[in-house]
Design goal:
The protein has 268 residues and is mostly helical. Among the domains are: 63 residues, no CATH class; 116 residues, no CATH class. It contains eleven helices and no strands. Helix 10 packs antiparallel against helix 11. The radius of gyration is 53 Å and the shape is elongated. Keywords: Membrane, Signal, Transmembrane, Transmembrane helix. This is DUF4129 domain-containing protein.
């Protein structure tokens, strides 16, 4: 019985608290948060007839500086502003370099008379081309000298030397040496003297001759150290004369040929 009375008391207290909470809510609620003196806005009909009659219009259109406009449009028509992939790929490396040099020089020098580096470059190039053309005409028509054409006599000499090298073991080199001396071509005569050394060593079985072999390969095949040293000395003379371009007259030829003849007499 006592327990039931306690439960009823708790329920009654909760009801009293709920009723007091309901009474705390204000009775008046504002429907709008705008102040009472806020002016009413007029409704505008943008499609009404004559609405746009009062829109101001220009009677005097300002003039446009066409020259300045042309500069601006031209500046953005260069290939570096062309974002088409195919066109970008077509720009060569040298053209990009010249354009950068042009921009760099344009920044260094004042803009006088619309100076462009590319104009100066092509003018210099044209002058250089004219000078080269005049020089070619002078060499061909006046001096009668052939320009950029192989020397036929030199080619014939090289063909003859190749023939001798390929048939070295079957030829008599004395006639080739005498003919070169008679022609005054002492460099070619020394070349034949060196081939005569190789012919001598090959016939004695000291080297295995093939015309594709180098002098270093032939020197390595020699077993006798003294022979190897003397043969290498003659090859050194040939290298200085034939490949080094040393001028050789008759006196110099007699001095050099002495080493080759001594080698041939000693090892024959």
């Amino acid at each position: 019985m006592a327990f039931k009375m306690q439960c009823l008391g708790i329920i009654y207290g909760m009801m009293i608290l709920f009723c007091s909470a309901q009474d705390s809510i204000p009775g008046e609620i504002f429907q709008d948060s705008l102040p009472a003196d806020y002016p009413e806005q007029d409704v505008v009909d943008f499609l009404a007839e004559g609405y746009y009659d009062h829109v101001p219009s220009f009677t005097n259109i300002p003039k446009v500086d066409t020259a300045e406009f042309g500069k601006l449009t031209a500046a953005y028509k260069t290939e570096e502003f062309d974002y088409d992939k195919e066109n970008v790929d077509r720009v060569s490396l040298f053209k990009r370099i010249f354009e950068r040099i042009n921009r760099w020089l344009s920044q260094l020098f004042p803009d006088t008379n619309n100076f462009q580096f590319s104009d100066l470059f092509y003018k210099i190039l044209a002058v250089f081309g004219i000078i080269v053309l005049i020089w070619i005409l002078y060499r061909v028509l006046i001096s009668r000298k052939r320009w950029l054409k192989p020397n036929d006599e030199k080619d014939e000499d090289l063909d003859e030397i190749r023939f001798v090298e390929k048939n070295l073991l079957d030829l008599d080199l004395s006639s080739y040496i005498d003919q070169a001396r008679k022609d005054g071509d002492f460099v070619r005569a020394i070349r034949y003297l060196n081939l005569l050394n190789i012919q001598l060593l090959a016939k004695k079985g000291m080297i295995d001759w093939r015309y594709t072999k180098s002098h270093m390969e032939l020197i390595d095949e020699l077993q006798d150290n003294q022979l190897k040293k003397e043969f290498a000395g003659n090859v050194d003379i040939l290298n200085r004369v034939w490949y080094g371009g040393m001028p050789v007259d008759e006196k110099k030829y007699d001095e050099f040929s002495h080493y080759f003849l001594n080698f041939q007499a000693k090892w024959q």
